[in-house]
Amino acid sequence: MPVTDDVAQPDQAGEQSAAASLAQATPARIARLAGSALIVLAAEPLYLMWDLAVVGRLGASELAALGVASLVLGVISTQLTFLSYGTTARSARAYGRGDRTGAIDEGMSASWLAVIAGAVIIAVVWPTAPYIFDVLTGHHDIASAATSWLRIAVFGVPLILLSMAGNGWMRGVQDTRRPIVYVVTGLGLSAVLCPLLVHGIAGAPRLGLEGSAWANVIGQSVAGLAFVISVVAAARGRVRPRWSLIGSQLRMGRDLIVRSLSFQICFLSAAAVASRFGVAAVAAHQVVMQVWNFVSLLLDALAIAAQALVGAALGAGAVAVAKSVAWRVTIASFAASAVLALVFALGRSVLPRLFTGSASVLDAIAVPWWFLVVMLPVAGVVFALDGVLLGSGDAAFLRTATLASALVGFLPAIWMSLAFGWGLTGIWSGLLIFLLARLLTQVLRIRSGRWTSIEL
């Protein structure tokens, strides 16, 4: 596989690679990395919204089942986000000091972890799916439909994790082209198959909700295998597990897993409480959560640019460049989030109708939709600073800050909503408090300067 122009050649000296990395830490370079990440990140939530729109035509119960089941699948796969974010930080450090082989070794080790973890997840989730949805939904029909969907879709988890690992090391070495091709090809295939298999169009079998799951698995398989082929080709025979390197990744991953788990406990709790307020409430909550996930990942594109550039700058010993990147990315992310907030405010009467025609669901969407508009500017800053701290390898701080924010803000509001009947207003108030608490802790950490001296 040829090396792209974005990747330092293996025979370059460390000093040359570091100098090139510093020269590329410009607004244009940030825009280029963010643009590539934007396409990759936007592809999956766009597909998920398309999936919701396709399945939503089956009825409110199917829409609710897909919303809850896709949330669980997201929880399962994103528990191992260190395969992407941790690998980006570690491979970017290697890239910054001119060690391309070390960066590829990070990708190979992360891929081995993806295969092992994916197999374990399948073995655990397939038999326990009915019990998971009984607890989450409290509604037999929704739980049964969600179980059927997840038992198919879970077989795509190892491929999802392989895509995470591949994205991680490619971002670290600033390869901006291949991740776009692999992810867009896989999800594009899923997008074509989804309506065919769900509704039986063009002679395809009409599988209903399960057709959505099969489309998901097929597309993820194509993308995951493409990343595997690339890392094996780049490794040039160095494909055996490097257990010492895997151990180092797991130590960083431990903190990121706890951080991710705190996110997912909050979101699962929110879905469980929303389901207690009726089918319309849980369907409305899940639709707006999918929109939230979409815009969050759009903002995360700038954060990923910060990860790659901050990691490379710190690997080269250029602390001033890392601080400059942090400042520029935060300003750009805030501006982008403000524009998004305006778009969703103006589109309030039109955009929700893309997902459902149910009058009860559309009526319930009003409350979380306006919370979404208010939260976006705050999220722009929070996500940018997340990217800076992840790029520096400051995973332990992010773990503690996120967990504390969840325990103090989000979870109390969610469960008080159930106890006092606050409905979706209480649930989304908790999310807003969660964001504000994270913002406060991040600003204090950035100002301290301690994030620039983390050893990986």
From TrEMBL:
Keyword match Zinc: no
Topology relative to the membrane: Multi-pass membrane protein
Segments traversing the membrane: 30-50, 62-86, 107-129, 149-169, 181-202, 214-235, 256-279, 291-314, 326-347, 367-389, 396-415, 421-440
Keyword terms, alphabetized: Cell membrane, Membrane, Transmembrane, Transmembrane helix, Transport
Compartment annotation: Cell membrane
GO molecular function, one term: xenobiotic transmembrane transporter activity
One term under GO cellular component: plasma membrane
Entry keyword Cell membrane: yes
UniProt record similarity statement: Belongs to the multi antimicrobial extrusion (MATE) (TC 2.A.66.1) family.
This protein's name: MATE family efflux transporter
Native source organism of the sequence: Gordonia jinhuaensis
